[in-house]
Amino acid sequence: MENQFFSNGGVPPQLHFDPSMPTWQSPPPPQSSEQNQDCFYNTQTWENSTDHHALHFDSAMSSMVSSPAASNSNMSSDNFAIRELIGKLGNIGGGGDEISPGFLKSMALNSTVAEFSGDPGFAARAAKFSCIGSRSFNGRSSQLGLNNNAELTQSQRSPSLMENGMLLPRVSSSPSLKLLGSQMEGTNSQEESTISEQKPSPCVNSRKRKASSRGKAKETANSTNPPMDAEASEDQNAKRGKPNEDEGKEKNGSVKAEEDSKAGTSSGGDEKQNMSSSKPPEPPKDYIHVRARRGQATDSHSLAERVRREKISERMKLLQDLVPGCNKVTGKALMLDEIINYVQSLQRQVEFLSMKLSSVNTRLDFSTESLISKDIFQSNNSLAQPLFPLDSSAQAFYGQQPQQNSAIHNNFPNGTVTHTSVDPLHTGDLCQNLGMQLLPLNGINEGGSQFPLTFSEDDLHTIVQMGFGQTANRKTPIRFQSINGSNQVPYEN
Amino acid sequence: MDSLQPNTITDSETSPDSNHKKRRKITHPQNPLNLMPWRSNADQQIYSLRLANALRRIPRPAAQIRDTADRVLAATAKGRTRWSRAILTRRKKLRIKKVKRAASGLRRAAIGRRKRLPAVQKKARVLGRLVPGCRKVSFPNLLEEATDYISALEMQVRAMAALAELLSGGAPAAHVLT
Known about the structure:
The structure holds two protein chains of two kinds.
Chain A: H1 2-15, H2 22-25, H3 35-42, H4 46-72, H5 75-90, H6 99-117, H7 120-132, H8 149-170, H9 175-187, H10 189-198, H11 204-215, H12 221-238, H13 241-251, H14 256-263, H15 268-278, H16 286-297, H17 300-322, H18 332-366, H19 369-384, H20 392-397, H21 402-408, H22 424-445, H23 450-468
Chain B: H1 6-14, H2 36-39, H3 41-57, H4 62-77, H5 82-89, H6 92-111, H7 119-130, H8 139-168, H9 171-174
């Protein structure tokens, strides 16, 4: 039944709301089935959960939009109301105290939705969302009457839950909370208000179902819907770190001890275990969850703690991708071990290479200065060739092997600077160097040693490979070949 | 990203040898960290060029090469990261002092063993010591700095290896770039 509403009512009005929403629409449809709820829910990453929460919220919003629209056939006003509601959601952070007056409006909205859908859970969801946007409904409570107590209780829970979620940022008892509050209100409030306006509208239908499916994978649709909606709404409001917190809180609602302990210290392993363990054992009673969450949500420390944990886990994931061999390792301590080892090995490699470079440089010193300048010119020129326009004299210098040059640098047009990051200043600087070096080199090379030419080819190959051969394979350390006499004939390529 | 503040880097690079110990001013605003720049070819080539220029100018002591390489790396980072700024502003004397302080701190910690040193925090401190300038940085920021530092180190290793290959004439193997 709700699905019907989604398919019919939600899409048309929201299409014009936000063009970016189509992207959100893609994930919800697959989630529609009830069977996918659990797996989808359990496999959610924190980032996905954030999106889904927003999606849930959107779906709930869409349901609200669709239902009043269908019932009252007053789409414009309802959509406008919903828009305001959504807009207000962004400002929830600053206006939490208005939730209680908006509570009545939520009741009114609940009645409207309920009479339309006949689904108490649906009504509860709508109530919860209406509670979120209580301020927007201040002038719109006329049409709705109160409904049964179940909705009331649900709506009571949702605003309180949202209240907690939204009020907490404003509670500046702790600096972290201040940070949260600032995040919510200062930086993101305006964006949230605008984004929230757009977000819920387009993907309302699928969101709604998604919210219901995702939110409480454990339970029936009815019981799951309201908390998910509240959660989604909260996430919508928080929009950044908070959604994850809310979801995590919701999941951990039954495990109060975890929440309490989290307020204090937290070790990486424990956190992850808590997260993972809290996910499966979600009790069937969402309302109890809500209560528990509310109790925990009021703990400002847990919110801040969760934000902190999310940040840390985010960064650890990035590091995991970066450090080879970290995929099999789980837990902060072991990963940190790997990271430390890797950093140390990289630094040792740098030391080794610097020693090698110094030895190469000193050996070059023994030769004539021209040779040194040639080498440097080689390295500079070969390095510079992809980046800078080839000097005419340099072209003459490399005239003996223009084919290779052009073949190698087919991607680098000789007359252009290929890399946009190389700005004219760099170009000018290095061109000066090239110019300085070219004059003596031209004079010297007319003597006819093949050394620089082959060097150039090798250099070109090297540089080209260096430029093109960049892969993410960091496992193999650089092979250090034995240093042959640099003055000897270079190798064939 | 390297083109953000070319003036500072170029000026310092083209100045005489004394610039190796000279501070570089960082004038650009703080941008969010982006790991991809360190993996790009352009960055590696720019770094190689700068390193080659710098190496050309220094009077050949081996001990300076590592510092020069680090400085050039930090310069290439354009000071967006904490570790790059720390590298650019550090001096040899200060480093010695820091090493001494760290050693004494270790001894004190070993003597006064406290339970308030979970393994994660200990490792975080070790990592903070490894990443320059990140000793007293919060854990999430430390992870971020470490991420960028690891990417930069990898790029540095690649560029220096290629440069060493070039200068030593072992060109054919240089194109095997990991």
